[in-house]
Amino acid sequence: MPPLVILTVAMLLVLAGVLWARLHPFLVLIVTALVVAALTPPERLGEAAALPIGRRVAEGFGKTAHDIGILIAMASILGQCLMEARGAERIVAAIERLVGRRRAAFAFLGAGFLLGIPMFAEAVFYLLLPLAKASWRETRRHGVLLVLSIVAGATMTHSLVPPTPGPLFVADEMGIDIALMMRQGMIVGAIAALAGFGYATWADRHFAIPLRTAGDEGPATASDGKLPPLWASLLPILLPVVLISADSAVDSMTVIPASVARIIHFVGDKNLALTASAAAAILLLACRPGASREKVRQAVAAAVLEGGEIILVIAAGGALGATLRQAGMAELAAAAVPKQALLLLPIAWGVTVLIRAAQGSATVAMITAVGIIAPIADAASLPYHEVYVALAIGCGSKPGMWMNDSGFWVIARMTGMTETETLKTASVMVAIEGTVGLLATMALATIWPIT
Hints:
It contains 19 helices and no strands. By secondary structure, the protein is mostly helical. The protein has one domain. Helix 5 runs antiparallel to helix 6 (121-139) and helix 17 runs antiparallel to helix 19 (419-447). The longest helix has 34 residues, at 293-326. The protein is globular. It starts with a helix and ends with a helix.
């Protein structure tokens, strides 16, 4: 069967399974991988032709779990314990103090952006939206701006900066150094988040939307005396960024002694760095006044359950990507490489936008899109680093947030906004962020190719 037909069947199965049948993404992706493996002619498999279909799918699944399973689990523990320890609230309070009470929205933008690195986006919404509503209760002004500021920050790091699952998987599939993905993702994410903040400011002035559930839940930000120290709250977030970046940069620093370089490589290993960060978050929770071993155990257990589900979905996406490559995506990709290499970025973005709009999940959209785009990037002789293709995929997962996305309903239900109000505020804003992110990615690929 031709590779294009196999790819079409795979796309239809993913969309039908998630959108029409409402099946869990893990089941949809793993079944699609089995179907693709069954449809692949033996002559395309080489030595793998001797392996059963299930074995080929399992190898793709296992490789992905091997590469990023520990990272996702530790990131989940980190985020859960940081939230339970109220470290996130401490960060909000510190940023608010830095920029001033009158600029509370900017504080929520910065907090959302920072917390979106180790925490899942919906967890950031659940944590910060009640705080934004509490801030609104004091003045009854700028409710839309406060809410959208959180979304503007968290949604970009969710899709551009590891160790969140989507960008972590894309970087792994494309063989991109995690430290490089972190750095470039934060640059593009910051530009896009500021563009989203600009729209949020405009929307707040033009749409008179009250926060109708503002009195129902969520305490105001606690006083600094009840919150952990700022340095301890920031440590679990910054530690993996510093350690992994140092590991990536140490080989180019000839002045560093070999013994020191070995130590940096040891602690900068991505799995060890995330484990150390998770340990710092656990310690932060354990040291809180009144904290018990049982509370720490429950927080870790909840994080492991949530992280385990994400690992299953991501690994199933890896299995699908592996079977698509075996099906001949490389030869199909060779014919799909655009003559103008820069055009690959909007192509990657557009493919991801279509998948996101069709099935709702940004992470699933990235998983599916990279299986299509990665072989094209490999087949092309790009004048810029493949990290920009990965960022284009991440930005493409932003437009298309509507009623089939769980994040859409989190925002609508926690603020009391109607579907129409959520569409014209949050949905429009993230579409602007994704578009500006693409333009920023293309500009960086042109002026800073990192070849």
